[in-house]
Amino acid sequence: MTTAPKITWPSLFTAAMYGFMYFPIIVLAVYSFNASRYSASWEGFSLKWYRSLFQDSRIFSALMDSLTIAVVAVAVSAVLGTMMAIGLAKYRFRGKGLYRGIAYLPLIIPDIAIAVATLVFLTYVAIPLSLGTIIVSHVVFCLAYIAVVVASRLQNLDPNLEEAALDLGATPFQAMMKVLIPQLAPGILAGCLLAFVLSMDDLLISSFTAGGGANPLPLEIFSRVRTGVKPDINALSVVLILGSALLSGMAEYLRYRSERQRRG
Hints:
CATH class: Mainly Alpha
Helix content: over 70%
Low-confidence stretches: none
CATH architecture: Orthogonal Bundle
Largest sheet: none
Distance between the termini: 40 Å
Number of strands: 0
Order of helices and strands: HHHHHHHHHHH
Strand content: under 5%
């Protein structure tokens, strides 16, 4: 005879927290299929808001701006973040601890502080705001996230493999490119996926550094919801949530697989 599991206060608290976080998302997803233009009542299942979304040229233009920003920022950050993680792990130099702390500051500084500081700097050096200034500002925080993920991967690698390559006649650059980088590839890819999601979702920093002609997707969504959330925005939110969840799941899977390969 089996006994029913006991309900404890920690489990109730955990369930309440998950409900608080995810119940609004579930409601949003349900009402994205509502035939009614208003969310106050349910008038039947319909896909018309998804059809309306995929026919909206402004949304697709904003999406292309966001994809351009995210892809370029992540590509630059992947190179710089990997080199930074390798340099901090393998080399000793004066001020290394200070540099490490400054490099990882974007992880803990509020976005509003980064946004204001970036805007003040761009204004001081008289650089006009544009799509390029958004990309540069996104590199700031993408770089830190990728460096952290790559650094954690570096700590679990066997340094003897790179040393063996050097003993066999490889140059330091060849040993890095043919031995070290392939081992770091899962960590680099996982960091890039994480940074890509963060860049696509960023609103605050983009709003401070966007100029004329630059309209990333978060800014387009924000401009539309100020007068009330429309059903097509519900549909767009569901698509973005699914896309972000897919990329985050891929990053976690790559991390898990690399950990299993290391332990095996």
